[in-house]
Every structure is written in structure tokens, then in C-alpha cells.
Amino acid sequence: MPASSEGPFPGESGPSPALLRVNGLKQYFYRKGGRAAPVKAVDGVSFSLHHGETLGLVGESGCGKSTLARSILRIYTPTGGQILFEGGDITRLSRREMRPYRKKMQMIFQDPLSSLDPRMTVGEILSEPLIGNRIDKSRAERFLRAGEILEQVGLSRDALGRYPKEFSGGQCQRVGVARALITRPRLVVCDEPVSSLDLSIRSQIVNLLLDFQKELGCAYIFITHDLSVLRSVSGRVAVMYLGRIVEICPGAEISAALHPYTQALLEAVPARNPRLARQKGRPPAAGEVPDPASPPEGCCFHPRCRRAMPVCEKTPPETRAIGSRLVSCHLY
Ligand code: SF4
Questions:
Q1: Which residue has its alpha carbon closest to ligand 1 atom 5?
Q2: Ligand 1 closest atom vs CA 305
């Protein structure tokens, strides 16, 4: 079954309608003057996400993960394809038409300190999404709600009157989590939320997110370049390469990956390969990631693939269902 099919995707649970369905989404960026080929940051991505589900999105830096998330949240207007949220087509809604959806779709950013306005107190930061989404009218009501969620993320209500610079990175990320969840969203994009934090803090933030998911029933798109983080959070994992999804599989089955690129990512995880532990930043496959403005013909991974065949250089692979997985590769 191709990934863009309307039916349920392999690995999805239950017959309930998807919270989010993305069909053939494209996000191209045109350079000044418009003569050069566009940068195809996202190029025909399809997947769906159910209420309360987590989809891990993994791939090397620059593969299009964050652009895909920003397109879904309609920070960008997609170049092509379709985004259905709670059954409604939000692909081309205007800013004003998107307003009712904003409180239902939130984002947690990678760098907790720079994502918080240093001139605002934590109370003001947490009030902003309530004001922007017209929730809770009075300042007292907003601060009451902000104080409650601060305690839920493990900070004291005293933090309401303090500024971001007075907190550690882990505490700032707790404020970031509180800001994203204060509107009780249905969908939260977590963009590398623990990658800038110490190892000891990472699991605390991940556990916090999992606790909120149980309470609110929200769905997460959890972006990371680190497959080891995904093992603890993801119901399913989608692997991105050069703006496309090359494999989707249940998180519990990621170690039996089929796509050569996913296999290369797994081999580059230091915990699985202690010899690599000291080689921080080592690319998972030989060679450079190609320019997304002129991707290779055929399978876009073929210049770096150890198992490439002649057909891979000419013909793009179709996406096929293999058991509970979707894989785009001529080997299957
Ligand atoms: Fe490698 Fe060919 Fe599969 Fe692409 S289609 S991942 S080049 S084997």
C-alpha cells in the first residue's frame, strides 16, 4: 500500500479517525530572483497520527524534520499536498482562519533559554498563549492557571515572578513544556526538546511529557536526530532522508529496521556500537547529504547506500507495506 493511501496505515491502532493526516506534503523554498531550483525541504510526505499517539521523527540534521513540523503547524504555507487536522483541511487557511486551531497545536523548542523572552516573567510567558487564544479573561485567572501548571511541571508558584535567566536549562525546558501544554492542546510538536540538556535531565523531561500525555490524551510528534531517545517515547517512528519519509515502523521494532538508511542510523548509535562512542557527530552513512535543490535521480539515498543497485540510480522506489512497516526501497 502506498503511503499516500486514504486507508489506515500499517501500525496504526484502531478504526477511529486520525487526529492528523498528511498527504503528499511539499514545502519548497525559492531563492531570491526565483531562477535557481527551489530547495525541496519536504518533498511528498504522507503519514497519519491518532489521538494520544506519539510519532518519532528521526533523521540527520537538515533532512527536513523541523520544516515538516512547521508546515504541519502552518507556520509555513505548504507548496503542495494536504494537511487534515481533526478531519478539517487546514492546508491553505488564512492566519485568521487558523486561530481556532492554534490552541490545539503547540510546539516545544530545542533551546529552552532562547525560546523564552528574557524580558518577560515566567507568569507573563505562561499567560501569553492564554491571551493569544482568548482563554481565561482576567489576569488573576491566568496566573492561577499558570501557577497550577508550574507545579505540575515540578516548579514552584514562586517562579511566576521570576525571569528565565534565573533558571537552569532543565528548569527553562520545564517552563517551555508548561507554556506548550497550558492550552491543553491535542497535538504537540516536540522539536529536539532534550538534545541541549544534560543526560541526567533528559529522562526527567521525557517522563514529564509522557505523564502529560496520559493526563491530556494529546498526540506528540517527537523530533530527534538521536534514535536512542525515541526508544522510550515513540509508538511509531518515521525516518526522514532528504525531505522524504523512507521508513515508518512501530518504535518497538526499530532495531529490526529494513531500510538501509535506518540501518545506518542505528549502527551510528554509540550505545549499540561503543567503538563509535567517542566519534560524536559521525555521519551515519559515507558521503555528504546531497543538496535538496538538486536531489539525485532515482532513490535519493543511492549515492550513499551500501546496497545500491543499477535500478536505484534511475527509478524512485515506491512505498510498500511490509508487515507493520512502510518502506521505500527497491530491496522490498
Ligand atoms: Fe539503497 Fe536502492 Fe534501497 Fe535506495 S532503493 S535505499 S539505493 S537499495
A1: 329
A2: 1
**Window from 60-69, 91-100, 269-278 with minimum mean pLDDT:** 269-278
Confidence grade of residue 233 (pLDDT, cut at 50, 70, 90)? confident
Question: Amino acid identity of 143?
Answer: F
- CATH superfamily label, 1-104+186-204+217-332: P-loop containing nucleotide triphosphate hydrolases (3.40.50.300)
User: By alpha-carbon position, which residue is closest to atom 3 of ligand 1?
Assistant: 329
pLDDT band at 5 (very low <50, low <70, confident <90, very high): very low
Provide residues with CB under 6 Å of ligand 1. Answer: 260, 299, 301-302, 305, 307-309, 312, 317, 329-331
Strand-pairing partners, residue 40, are 28
With b for 16 or more beta-carbon neighbours within 10 A and e for fewer, the 127-143 pattern comes to bebbeebebbeeeeebb
- Predicted confidence band at 9 (pLDDT cuts at 50, 70, 90)? very low
Say if residue 276's pLDDT is above 90.
no
Residue 77 buriedness (CB in 10 A; 0-12 / 13-18 / 19+): exposed
Domain ranges for the chain: 1-104+186-204+217-332, 114-184
Query: Measured in angstroms, how far is the CA atom of residue 260 from the centroid of ligand 1?
Result: 7
